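Exercise 3.2. Students should predict the tertiary structure of the chain below and write it as structure tokens, then compare their answer with the key that follows.

Predict this chain's 3D structure.
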Amino acid sequence: MDKMPAYLEELAFAFSMLPSKREVLIELIELGKSMQELPVEERTAERKVPGCVSNVYIKTELDATGKIIFMGSADALIVKGYVALLVQSLSGYTAREIVEEAGVYVDAFLKKTDLNASMIASRANAFGNIFQTMKEQCKAFL
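Answer key:
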């Protein structure tokens, strides 16, 4: 992971072009609607993201090439957008890259977009909780 994942760069640019925080939220909701969700039977207690007001689940698998593939779901529209954003941007990297390097790029994305500034505290925390859960699940593959 030599630089910010292209998907995060594209989203940061796209969000910066939107005229208001409301428009950013609308885009997040649309992003969440487009995500393939984790099937209900795979939404287990061990995949539940702790600390979220809404029900959020993350599944982490290793593909045949040694890359991480994420799937997720959430029952709140904006939080579902967070899941979609993180799943799309972090899938395809190694567990080590996600655990050791991805935080720098996720933080840079948040700073570029000022995404957390437009959120109530519980939603802003959800983003961090989802990312932390993804990192924790990746540690099992190190």
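Discussion points: Helices lie at 6-17, 21-34, 77-90, 95-100, 102-113, 121-139. The longest helix spans residues 121-139.
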